[in-house]
Design a protein that fits this description.
The longest helix has 26 residues. The strands form four sheets. Strands 1, 2, 3, 4, 5, 6, 7 and 8 form an eight-stranded mixed beta sheet that branches. This protein folds into three domains: 144 residues, Beta Polymerase, domain 2 (2-Layer Sandwich); 110 residues, no CATH class; 123 residues, Immunoglobulin-like. With 457 residues, the protein is of the alpha+beta class. It has 13 helices and 19 strands. The radius of gyration is 26 Å and the shape is globular.
């Protein structure tokens, strides 16, 4: 069954895969403010200290409009901000050493961090081979590669730490991408690129480079007929098939603006794992498209996207069901606030409950689960706090009982799915969990230090 509305919707408020993997407007605004601030500082500081004309160019997924939110807690958004030293002729025309040029950028970035506000976490030391990195609170970092730019030829070369100057032209690649598609197709290509990047981040041990995935998606999309990309879910399976065929025939992926560069820098073992992953993704897509119900299709897609893939509402699942549900889960919920003896209870929902509660979900009618079936729990977080923390949930556990913690204000869901040995969904329930911003104070709070010794005279 096709479930395009679970992949993408023009209704911004609706929970879709695309919304859940995409940074929010406040996150984009925070990133924009910071990269502009870093750019202005570096351009002015480096121009003053070196005498060269300095310019900049955004590149990478932020520039292409294909940025995804971190796949796991602790990961970060990535922004690429190129800094260009301008002089006529080749990069070596002035005798500038590329490693020394990178060091100047690293030092300028450190000076910025010393003057900046508290949201700067660190400038990473030592610098990376092809860039410097500065990390910020809010779970994002800015990578700053250093380039020579010949303005007359509009030619660029990248300064590396140990490999000298490299021919590299991120602007030409961006122009190539922009000119590749009709306006009607560009938005879908960007969405498909995000889906593939998130799938790779979740399912591949060695994540392919973002530029490699972008080029693979773009060139594969061009080979597909209009009927093969009618909906995002249908397109994703066909896209994965096209990419697999290409890589199986030849693992070399030429940079479309520099045919001498192979964008696939993965090892042979990692490339083979990528191919196996694509075969798995194709199998998931085919199974989901053939599923008899929306609930079945959504569960199958979670095998590729985990908790990022949204569950259908129970009403929508019921109205689209072609096969009756065999089992109706009944879930008892208990919430115990931290440091309190209070217990809040609910059946198939709970709340509002305060933050810092330990929550236990119990499948009451587990004895009625069909023989051979499995019970699976999936946490799907929603709301501003969860989005800003980049914690959209996780695949929780299997079995009759699941335990979680109340961390973010808003309405979240614990979804319980009963799955047969063949992968068919036999039962499904969404358990809403409403969490307030309040925290219940401890029953016997610890006394402040300045009061502990009063009376001892």
């Amino acid at each position: 069954m096709r479930v395009q509305h679970l992949f993408y919707s023009t209704t911004v408020e609706r929970q879709t895969l695309h919304r859940r993997i995409t940074p929010t407007e406040p996150q984009r605004a925070q990133q924009q403010e910071r990269w502009q601030d870093v750019r202005d500082y570096l351009v002015n500081d480096l121009a003053e200290k070196t005498g060269y004309a300095i310019s900049s160019w955004l590149q990478g997924s932020y520039k292409f409009g294909t940025q995804i939110r971190p796949a796991k807690l602790g990961d970060e958004f990535d922004i690429d901000l190129g800094i260009y030293f301008n002089w006529p002729g080749a990069a070596d025309a002035t005798g500038e050493d590329p490693q020394a040029l990178k060091t100047r950028v690293q030092e300028s970035l450190a000076a910025y961090a010393a003057e900046a506000e508290d949201d700067v976490k660190e400038v990473v030391q030592p610098p990376k081979e092809r860039c410097s990195r500065i990390r910020f609170s809010g779970d994002f970092h800015i990578d700053v590669p250093s380039y020579h730019l010949d303005p007359n030829r509009d030619a660029r070369e990248l300064a590396t730490e140990t490999k000298g100057w490299e021919v590299s032209d991120p602007k030409a690649l961006y122009v190539w991408f922009q000119q590749l598609f009709a306006d009607d197709d560009t938005a879908q290509v960007r969405r498909l690129t995000r889906y593939v990047k998130m799938w790779a981040a979740l399912k591949l041990e060695e994540r392919p480079a973002s530029v490699l995935l972008t080029v693979l998606v773009a060139e594969a999309y061009l080979r597909l007929a209009d009927r093969e990309v009618e909906t995002d879910d249908f397109a994703l399976g066909n896209l994965a098939t096209a990419i697999l065929g290409r890589l199986a025939a030849d693992a070399v992926v030429e940079n479309p603006v520099n045919r001498r560069e192979n964008l696939n820098r993965m090892s042979a073992e990692a490339t083979q794992a990528f191919l196996e992953g694509l075969r798995s993704l194709i199998g998931i897509a085919n199974a989901a498209l053939a599923a008899p119900t929306e609930t079945n299709a959504a569960f199958i897609w979670t095998l590729a996207f985990d908790h990022f893939f949204p569950a259908p509402t129970e009403q929508a699942a019921a109205s689209n069901a072609l096969v009756p549900v065999m089992f109706e889960p009944q879930v008892s919920v208990e919430a115990r606030p931290e440091g309190s003896a209070a217990v809040m209870r609910g059946i198939n929902s709970i709340g509002p409950i305060p933050k810092k509660c330990a929550i236990t979900f119990t499948l009451d009618n587990v004895h009625q689960v069909p023989a051979g079936a499995q019970v699976r729990w999936i946490v799907r977080n929603e709301g501003e706090e969860a989005e800003l923390t980049n914690d959209m949930g996780h695949v929780s556990t299997s079995g009759a009982v699941a335990t979680e913690n109340a961390a973010y204000r808003g309405t979240h869901h614990m979804d319980v799915v009963i799955v047969s040995a063949l992968g068919a969904v036999l039962g499904f329930r969404r358990v809403p969990v409403q969490i307030s911003g309040a925290v219940i104070p401890p029953r016997n709070p610890k006394r402040p230090g300045y009061t502990r010794f009063r009376g001892r005279r």
